[in-house]
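Dear colleagues,

As part of the handover before I leave the project, I'm documenting each prediction I ran so the next person doesn't have to rerun anything. This entry is a single chain, and its sequence is reproduced below.
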Amino acid sequence: MLQTEFEFTLPKGYLDEAGNLHRKGVMRLATAIDEIVPLRDPRVRSNPAYATVIILSRVITKLGALEEISPQVVEGFFACDLSYLQKFYRQVNELEEPERSTNGSPTLDAIAI
């Protein structure tokens, strides 16, 4: 059976307005529409890097106790967490080879946590 959801733990975590820290989450595999929809967004037209924010807000299905993962939530991620999620997205969608340990097998960071 094809695995479509992958658990992750953010290095720092998202700090919400109430001061709650959210680190554990779930990302689903991206679909074609997840990468097409951002191209229509005016924020992406003026800043192509913003596509990452929109795509992540679409494919992250859970993050701690948050009810919704909006682009505004993703905008609030610490830089190291954003970098982690970009790499995780590429790995789970097989856009990048998983990291290998010294013995050649995938590391725990490179597969679903």
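The two ends are 18 Å apart (CA to CA). Confidence is low (pLDDT under 50) at residues 105-113.

All the best with the project,
I.
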